[in-house]
Amino acid sequence: MQTLFGDKKQRFDELVDEISRRHVAEIPFPLSFTELSAAAESYLQFLNLPQEVKDSFTPPNAPARSYSIPGYRLRKRGVDNARDNKEFFHYHPGYESHIASLPAANDPRAQTFLAHARAVNVAATATLRSIVELLDHEFPGVFTEYFPNTTEPQTNTILRFLKYDKAGEGAFLAAAHYDVGGATLALAESAPGLRVGVSPETLYPVIHRSGAALFMPALDLQTMTDERFKPIWHDVVQLSEDTHSDTTSRWAIVFFANAISKKERPGFEASRVPKS
């Protein structure tokens, strides 16, 4: 695991070494698995709200970031290029003005979930900052691309809460892909199933540890750094018939980040076709 001690050069070298060996790097994270599980459970309670209420949390004409827009989404396999069935919620501090306008935000289930989302976002943003500071030591200018001299809501980030529908053992809950953007922090999941590699042939399962996030380079990071930060190919598989509940196969919490200058999403094939 990456430490918070040592000089930046030493810590950068440790980061590169771990990625070269494991394709991901463990980074200290301020929240425990117990705290993240409570956040996930509050999200699952939020999902019990009526569908039209959940839909209201997606602002009309929301400005898209380089990978998605804030709010709630329901995805079904085969619709809008979706390859899995899931519900997810995207949180960003710049979304607060829309939240404040919603009567539904006063529902206790929404209030509890949003309070958790804010706390997780603060912790994830601080963790991202620690990583980008290391990258900036080797690649000057990277830090201001992720943390410009403006207020935090200008960060090009999204915190995602995911609920996967039930599926049989061995089913792909998340089809293999690269993440768009620059970097991903996989924060927590209800059960193992995340597999990572640099190609389909190199995929292997990784396990979250409490107090650590998994740092994964995404499609855009290599263009701002070098070949040591290749995008990580990954998927999610249901490893057993043990599921989180009768309606939920698995939950996960993930934080995505990209440079402020990266405004456009890559084409569909860029994230779904493994590089040779």
Distance between the termini: 29 Å
Instruction: Give the ordered list of helices and strands.
Output: HEHHEEHHHEEEEEEHEEH
Q: How would a crystallographer describe the biggest sheet? A: 7 strands, antiparallel
Strand order of the largest sheet: 1-9-6-11-4-3-2
Structural class assignment: alpha+beta
Tally of separate helices: 8
Runs in which pLDDT lies below 50 for 5 or more consecutive residues are none
Q: Round the Cα radius of gyration to an integer and report it.
A: 18 Å
The average pLDDT value, as a whole number, equals 85
Number of strands: 11
Name the overall outline.
Answer: globular
Helix-residue proportion: 25-40%
Strand content: 15-25%
Describe this structure in words.
This protein is 30% helix and 23% strand. The protein is α+β, with helices and mostly antiparallel strands and 276 residues long. Strand 7 and strand 8 (204-205) form a beta hairpin. The chain is globular, with a radius of gyration of 18 Å. The two termini are 29 Å apart.
